[in-house]
């Protein structure tokens, strides 16, 4: 079976937000009457990207949030609900790639799990590079198809003027790298399955599963879900793949899990 060579999880600091956006869970983000006067819990919402090295090229999975987040998100109001305020200068994506010694010209593919502001925020960095930008067919159709500057967490400033190749269905993309169709969060959200020689299978869920508490079982939805039926189906699809492959699950925004992973620039998986 074909395998990738190396995976580097790139931590890019954190946004902060009301937990309810990420988790609609009784007793956690939804409280009973004896706690009705308590403030809503605000939590860290970590952001990460992933560099996958294969014999047929390097993939960057997602691009995190931009340096100019406050200004760029201004017209949307998103900066009030998801401030990217727990990030140091050396945690922005461009700094991280520099620390890793990875030039933009070395990246062959930039695959975006979906085109929300915290995943496509640095896509424009690759505008004049050789990197091929890839997203799901339905995601591109939606993201370029609405009127105005933004729709929910899709912000055209992040990706306008860029050319995207698209995939649909579950796609064997490069050796050891499979893109998995997991809609629900958005119409075209994807997860990525990577098979490594030593570390085995890893599944990067992106926002198909926000955090371990979302995964369950039972699966717990979030306030930001485009289609609840698809969300549940995608979580169970991923659970089936995990059971078949004994995969390590890496969730989209899990504030506890991010500290348990081997993180770039020092750590990696092979």
Summarize the structure in words.
The chain is of the alpha/beta class. Helix content is 19%, strand content 27%. It is built from seven helices and 13 strands. A six-stranded mixed beta sheet has the order 1-2-3-4-5-8. Strands 9-10-11-12-13 form a five-stranded mixed beta sheet, covered by helices on one side. Strands 6-7 form a two-stranded antiparallel ribbon. A hairpin with a 2-residue loop joins strand 2 (42-54) and strand 3. The chain starts with 5 loop residues before the first strand and ends in a 19-residue tail after the last strand. The mean pLDDT is 97. Belongs to the metallo-beta-lactamase superfamily. Its cofactor is Zn(2+).
Please provide a brief summary of the model.
InterPro entries: MBL_superfamily_lactonases, Metallo-B-lactamas, RibonucZ/Hydroxyglut_hydro. This protein has 270 residues and is of the alpha/beta class.
What is Rg?
18 Å
Note the overall shape: globular
Enumerate the strands of the largest sheet in spatial order, edge to edge or round the barrel: 1-2-3-4-5-8
Share in helix: 10-25%
Average pLDDT metric:
97
Largest sheet: 6 strands, mixed
Protein name: N-acyl homoserine lactonase family protein
Cofactor: Zn(2+)
Family: Belongs to the metallo-beta-lactamase superfamily.
Keywords: Hydrolase, Metal-binding, Zinc
């Amino acid at each position: 079976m074909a395998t990738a060579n190396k995976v580097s999880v790139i931590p890019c600091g954190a946004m902060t937000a009301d937990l309810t956006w990420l988790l609609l869970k009784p007793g956690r983000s939804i409280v009973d009457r004896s706690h009705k006067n308590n403030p809503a819990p605000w939590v860290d919402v970590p952001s990460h990207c992933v560099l996958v090295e294969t014999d047929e090229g390097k993939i960057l999975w997602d691009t995190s949030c931009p340096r100019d987040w406050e200004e760029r998100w201004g017209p949307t109001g998103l900066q009030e609900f998801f401030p990217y305020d727990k990030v140091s200068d050396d945690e922005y994506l461009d700094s991280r790639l520099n620390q890793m010694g990875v030039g933009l010209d070395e990246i062959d593919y930039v695959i975006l799990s979906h085109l929300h502001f915290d995943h496509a925020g640095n896509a424009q960095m690759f505008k004049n590079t050789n990197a091929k930008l890839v997203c799901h067919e339905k995601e591109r159709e939606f993201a370029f198809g609405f009127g105005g500057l933004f729709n929910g967490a899709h912000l055209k400033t992040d990706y306008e003027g860029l050319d995207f190749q698209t995939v649909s269905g579950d796609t064997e993309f490069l050796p050891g790298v499979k893109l998995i169709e997991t809609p629900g969060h958005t119409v075209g959200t994807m997860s990525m399955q990577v098979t490594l020689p030593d570390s085995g299978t890893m599944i990067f869920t992106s926002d198909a599963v926000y955090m371990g508490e979302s995964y369950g079982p039972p699966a717990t939805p979030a306030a930001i879900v485009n289609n609840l039926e698809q969300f549940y189906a995608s979580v169970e699809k991923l659970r089936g793949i995990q059971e078949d492959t004994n995969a390590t699950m890496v969730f989209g925004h899990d504030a506890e899990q991010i500290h348990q992973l081997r993180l770039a620039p020092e750590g990696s998986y092979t």
